[in-house]
Automatic annotation (TrEMBL):
Transmembrane segments: none annotated. The lineage of its organism: Eukaryota, Metazoa, Ecdysozoa, Arthropoda, Hexapoda. This is Lipase domain-containing protein. InterPro entries: AB_hydrolase_fold (IPR029058), Lipase (IPR013818), Lipase_N (IPR033906), TAG_lipase (IPR000734). Its main location: secreted. It comes from Aromia moschata. One of its GO terms (molecular function) is lipase activity. GO terms for cellular component: extracellular space. GO terms for biological process: lipid catabolic process.
Length: 345
């Protein structure tokens, strides 16, 4: 079965990257790439340190429950871009000890599985944002949980998301700070944590950007433990790795760089190409904050986009930090396989 899956992925990769002119994937076939496919009962993963892990998705999860002590917040600002002030998620009264400025906007960044506050996703996005914008940044660290098995992490997403949502609600009350000044970006499982935090604030955050939201063990039908349209005033999703994430649109705006199946420059061995494509989502987002120019074209299907049939449709910019009134819908774009990724127009 695994071989079949690898072959499928290689074929899709081939289809996506090299077959610019053949087009026959229907929307429902595209959506089959979602990991809701019950046959996918495990996946291979290369972590940031190059170790390969095999996660069996059908094994019985160890039962453990995330506590508030497992979730910390690393506060950064223009005056302390590299020396965080560390708070627990219950320490809303200690925010006063940071450079938190309630007249400025706020960004929460939420990492994924096996990551922590110092992982590339946080370093890159925090760096890109603070370089250009004078805002409050909270990097969420849930590594006490994220270092465990994938199944155990999935089982705790709702609890962790609610802890953060409660922190935000309390922060908002204490500082009379409007929820509409708060933005969130989450990668992989972190996208779903951001989604739950957003639900906990009644969808009133300015926006949530989900970077390749994790697919395995999540479903289209059950929305309480995952990122969904409605979790913020605007939800954007950047899809980079169909077989590890949600390929179906789940936001207001859904962006598919290079078709969203696998990314150029990531055509490596199977497990490495998936991890590489999955990480590409935050690399693209960080660049969209510092440079921009990810012009994307509205289109219903990658195949149609590839054929040039959507060329005259309206355009939108993927990602970015400051934006207003982005359109809803599915958007496609090409990128380079190495930085700078944006190809502009
Ligand atoms: C996954 O775990 C289940 C239950 O422990 C076991 O039956 C199955 O063989 C495992 N699958 C793989 C691919 O290791
Ligand atoms: C924050 O909010 C939660 C839920 O509304 C509450 O239980 C908690 O005591 C509040 N206070 C702090 C300091 O987090
Ligand atoms: C907070 O930010 C505002 C606007 O940039 C600034 O005028 C004010 O001095 C800042 N407050 C503190 C305590 O730094
Ligand atoms: C944080 O995660 C990175 C991988 O993203 C790892 O290399 C590093 O050792 C971790 N640091 C801590 C303090 O756990």
């Amino acid at each position: 079965m695994f071989k079949i899956r690898v072959v499928t992925i290689l074929l899709l990769m081939f289809f996506n990257i090299f077959c610019e002119a053949t087009a026959s994937l229907s929307e429902s076939e595209e959506n089959k790439l979602d990991h809701e496919d019950p046959q996918s009962n495990f996946f291979l993963w290369q972590d940031d340190n190059g170790n390969i892990r095999e996660e069996n998705l059908t094994k019985k999860p160890e039962s453990f429950t995330a506590q508030t002590s497992d979730v910390n917040l690393y506060f950064y600002s223009k005056s302390n871009p590299n020396e965080p002030v560390v708070l627990n998620v219950l320490d809303v009264n200690k925010v006063i000890k940071t450079k938190f400025n309630s007249s400025k906007e706020c960004l929460f960044i939420v990492h994924g599985w096996l990551n922590n506050y110092s992982s590339p996703v946080n370093v890159m996005i925090k760096g890109a944002v603070l370089e250009k914008y004078d805002v409050n940044v909270f990097v969420v660290d849930w590594s006490a949980i994220s270092k465990n098995g994938y199944i155990e992490c999935v089982a705790n997403i709702e609890r962790i998301g609610k802890f953060i949502g409660h922190f935000i609600n309390n922060l908002s009350k204490k500082y009379n700070y409007p929820l509409s000044k708060i933005k969130m970006v989450g990668h992989s499982l972190g996208a779903h944590i951001a989604g739950v935090a957003g639900k906990t604030t009644n969808g009133q955050l300015k926006y949530i950007i989900g970077l390749d939201p994790a697919g395995p063990l999540f479903t289209i039908v059950i929305t309480k433990n995952r990122l969904n349209k409605g979790d913020a005033r605007y939800v954007e999703v950047i899809h980079t790795t169909a077989s590890l994430s949600f390929h179906s649109p789940i936001g207001n705006g859904d962006y598919y760089p290079n078709g969203g199946v696998l990314q150029p420059g990531c055509v490596l061995s199977h497990d490495r190409s998936l991890s590489c494509s999955h990480s590409r989502a935050y690399e693209l987002y960080a660049e969209s904050v510092s440079v921009g120019s990810f012009v994307s074209t509205r289109c219903g299907l990658d195949a149609t986009y590839e054929l040039g049939l959507c060329a005259n449709n309206d355009k939108s910019q993927m990602g970015g930090f400051v934006f207003a009134d982005k359109p809803d819908g599915k958007f496609y774009l090409k990128t380079s396989g190495t930085p700078p990724f944006a190809l502009g127009n």
